[in-house]
Each structure stands twice: as C-alpha cells, then as structure tokens.
Amino acid sequence: MKALRYFGERDIRYADMPDPTIADASDAIVQMTACSICGSDLHIYHGHGFSDDTGFCVGHEAVGEIVEVGRDVRRVRVGDRVMMPAMIGCGQCRSCHTGNVINCENNASACYGLSNDLQGVQAQAFRVPAADTNAWKIPEGISDDQALMLTDALATAWFGARMADISPGCSVAIIGLGPIGLMAVESAFTMGAGVVYAIDPVPERRALAEAAGAIASDPGAAIEAIREATSGRKADCVIEAVGKDATIDLALRLIRKRGTVSAIGAQQTRRYAFPLERAFASGLTFRTGVCSIAEEWPAVIPLVQSGRLRPERFVSHRLPLSEGETAYRLFDNRKAGALKMVITA
Ligand SMILES: [Zn+2]
Ligand SMILES: [Zn+2]
Predict the structure, then answer these.
(1) Are 44 and 185 spatial neighbours (Cβ–Cβ below 8 Å)?
(2) How far is the CA of 204 from the centre of ligand 2 (A)?
(3) How close is the Cα of 116 to the center of ligand 2, in Å?
(4) I need a surface site. Which of 50, 69, 189, 262 has the fewest CB within 10 A?
C-alpha cells in the first residue's frame, strides 16, 4: 500500500509500505477515507519529532471503514464507518473504560504516527489496536470532516478550554490560531466567555478569529491591548496552543492574578525556566497535558450535531494522499490560507 512516511527533516514521502495486518485478536484494520495533518505532525516534519525513528508512517487523525477485525473484536464490524481518537489505550483497564486513555493502567497509552511502535494513519490502511475501544462508529448526523476534527483538534481545543477554568462572563486570551486555537475560540464562547482575545502573527488567521467574535491582535501588541482592554487586570484565563518558550512566556504575562493558564500546544521545550516565584506570588494555576480524546466526546459530539460547534469550517485544503508532500509543504508555509489540510484516499 501507499503511505506518508517520515525519512528526515522536511522529508515526508508518499511511499510504499507493507500492508497492515492483524497482530492481536483485538485489532482491526481500517481503510482510510480521510485523514488530516495536525500541528504536531509539523514538529515531526521539522525534524524534532517524538522519537529518533525514521521510516514510520505519520498521522493520527483519520476516519475510515473497517475492512478486517480480529476474532475478539465485538463492538465494531467490517463495513462500519469509524473515527479513531488520536490517543489509544489498552481498552481493558478502568481508565480506558471511561475514555481516559492517557491514564491507561496497562501503559498502553500511545498516539499513532510518532514512531515505528504504532504506525500512523496517513496511509491507505492502518491497524487499530484494541479496536473495541479505539475505533468508534461515527454518530448519526456527523460528517466525515466533522468526525476528522473530533479525532483530535476539536476535542483538544475543548479540553484546553475546560482546563482554563472558563466560567460565564470571563475574559479568555488564546495564543496561536491554528485550527486548535480557532476551535478553542469557539469552545470558549460556547462555555460562556464574555470576551475572547485571539493572538497570532498571521493576519488571515486573526480575521477568522474576529469573524467568530474574538478581538484579535498580533503577539507583539497583545500585552498592551489586553492590559488596556481590562484596565490592567489582564485575562482571567489563557489558552496557549503553540508550545514554544515565547508563547508560554506570553501566556504568563497575559494572565491575571489567580487566573488559569492552560497549555495545550505540543511542548517543544525541554528546559523551560518556569517563573515559580512569580506564579506563587500571583497564585496562578498552570495546567498542561495531552487530551484523552474520547473523554471529551460526550460534550462535544452533541454540540457538533446541533451546529453550535462547527469545526468543519476550518478545513482549508483537500488533497489526495498522493499529494501528501504538497499538503505538508503548504501547511508548513501557512500559505494560501492553509489551516486544516484534509487528505483523501
Ligand atoms: Zn492532531
Ligand atoms: Zn488501559
């Protein structure tokens, strides 16, 4: 089969790969119908990924059809239209049963497409371990594009907003307006935010946030703008959706005393000097972590079904798998309004 494989910095190739096979009786094989590129795929593309492996297939956001199941699979069947949470778990432990796969008690928590341990989903087909837990029939009234956004971006955005302690009427600053940041703008309003300040250097992305009702600013102007708009109080909640030292710094400068910072950008920094003394003095709450995708679904799926969250709006490009290299290049350059890149079979 064909897959998008990582061979080195800026070298993700449309290449041959062995067909996936059932390795365990609980596995399923899914034929991809659509997958998408995530900001964290770009970390891999830039050569500072999550492992030193090469040759693995990338990607963790996909929808597709079950084409084969192991003999222990009960809940999903061949022919089912399914969506896969980016993060998987063992499916057997108490945490996995509640959807909280990050806390998997059997240490089976993993993300697709970060190494050779679990191949990615930007391929014609891929293996889903513990399919009864890690593959879900797409609910009624959810389109393929919406399901794709549920596999990571929207769930992570909602999780980020939840971790920011948003309460009705509060002010929220959101740093980084990629698809997750933009979906966080929508999530924050849905949770009752009174005002959302949206921060990104790309004017087209700021325009989208403004269209959603946010007050947008460039990172260089954000501190002054928010200080002025809040009479020096600063933001009640900050969602940081980038994962760099400079954006964490900005988050800590934008938060009011006793406010909450929620950092959901995949952290690329290993030795960040956290200003603990200042955090102590201002009594701030700082949360970070990876989203257990399916755990957010009971809240977000009905909101998508009812049209209150419209994540499909952020799909900017649609290219076939054979043009995956171009999709990465466009997304990396943030050119041509590149936001969510959908790759079709
Ligand atoms: Zn993702
Ligand atoms: Zn588990």
Answers:
(1) no
(2) 41
(3) 20
(4) 50
Q: What is the pLDDT of residues 263-274, one digit of tens each?
A: 998 877 667 888
Q: Which ligand is nearest to the CA of 35?
A: 1
Q: What percentage of the chain carries pLDDT values higher than 70?
A: 99
Please, which residues have CB within 8 angstroms of residue 305's CB and are 6 or more apart in sequence? 139, 140, 141, 142
Instruction: List pLDDT tens digits, range 79-115.
Output: 999 999 999 999 999 999 888 999 999 999 999 999 9
The answer to whether 4 touches 324, Cβ cutoff 8 Å, is yes
CA geometry: angle 326, 330, 333, nearest 5 deg: 140
Task: Please tell me the distance between residue 99's alpha carbon and the centre of ligand 2 in angstroms.
Answer: 9
- The torsion angles phi and psi of 122, rounded to 5 degrees, stand at -85, 70
For 236, the token pair is 């009640």
Q: Are 205 and 271 in contact (CB under 8 A)?
A: no
Q: How far apart are CA 142 and CA 139, in angstroms?
A: 6
Q: How far is 29 from 126, CA to CA, in rounded Å?
A: 6
Residue 327: other Cβ atoms inside 10 A:
25
Helix (H, G, I), strand (E, B) or coil at 52: coil
Cα separation of 214 and 29, whole Å?
42
Indicate which ligand has the atom closest to the C-alpha of 85: 1
Compute, in angstroms, the gap from residue 186 CA to the centroid of ligand 2: 31
Distance 133 CA to ligand 2 centre (A): 9
37, amino acid identity: I
For strands 235-240 and 81-84, give the pairing: unpaired
Give tens-digit pLDDT for 190-249: 999 999 999 999 999 999 999 999 999 999 999 999 999 999 999 999 999 999 999 999
